[in-house]
Amino acid sequence: MATTIVGYVGARLAATYWVRPHFEAPLHLALSLNKVSAYGFSRTPSGNLTMTAIPPNMSNAWPLSASIVDTAGHAPTSQYLGHACPTLLTGQGDGGLQGCVAHLAARFHEVVIYQPAGRYWPFQIYETALFARWHSAP
């Protein structure tokens, strides 16, 4: 019985995290930083400043990732963030946050990769067919 449970949990995890995201190609949504409400700044253990994005609330969609990038797909470097947001780099609060975001928005935007809500039932059918075929295989 334990082997069955471990096998089932392993198959479910594999289907959820490695197979399901590839049933159909995800969509990409580009958003201006001025319209993004959920992003943050943090420091790495080495002291570098990083900017992270949190996917926006997309009604019933399945966000796979969110990132802040320029037109070439590169994230802002710690050096660039330090130049654009010096108050964040020195730890003197977020007084210049609006100016910082305005400066960053001129060059960077958020890209959200997601599966739309309309794919929920097709994904359920694909996954059911996958498990039914796997279960009935000789």
- The pLDDT mean sits at 82
| 3D shape | elongated
What structural class do the secondary elements suggest? Answer: alpha+beta
Q: How many domains?
A: 1
Question: How large a portion of the residues is in β-strands, by DSSP E?
Answer: 15-25%
What is the helix content? Answer: 40-55%
Distance between the termini: 21 Å
Number of helices: 5
Radius of gyration, rounded?
20 Å
Beta strands, count: 5
Are there runs of 5+ residues with pLDDT below 50, and where?
Answer: none
The biggest beta sheet is recorded as: 3 strands, antiparallel
Q: Strand order across the biggest sheet?
A: 1-5-4
* String of helices and strands: HEEEEHHHEH
Short description:
The protein has 138 residues and is of the alpha+beta class. Helix content is 41%, strand content 22%.
Explain how this protein is built.
With 138 residues, the chain is an alpha+beta fold. It has one domain (2-136). The chain has 5 helices and 5 strands. It has helices at 2-19, 78-84, 86-90, 97-105, 120-136; strands at residues 27-32, 39-43, 49-53, 62-69, 109-115. The strands form 2 sheets. Strands 1-5-4 form a 3-stranded antiparallel β-sheet, with no helix packed on it. A two-stranded antiparallel sheet has the order 2-3. A hairpin with a 5-residue loop joins strand 2 and strand 3. The longest helix has 18 residues, at 2-19. It is elongated. It starts with a helix and ends with a helix. The model has no long low-confidence stretch (mean pLDDT 82).
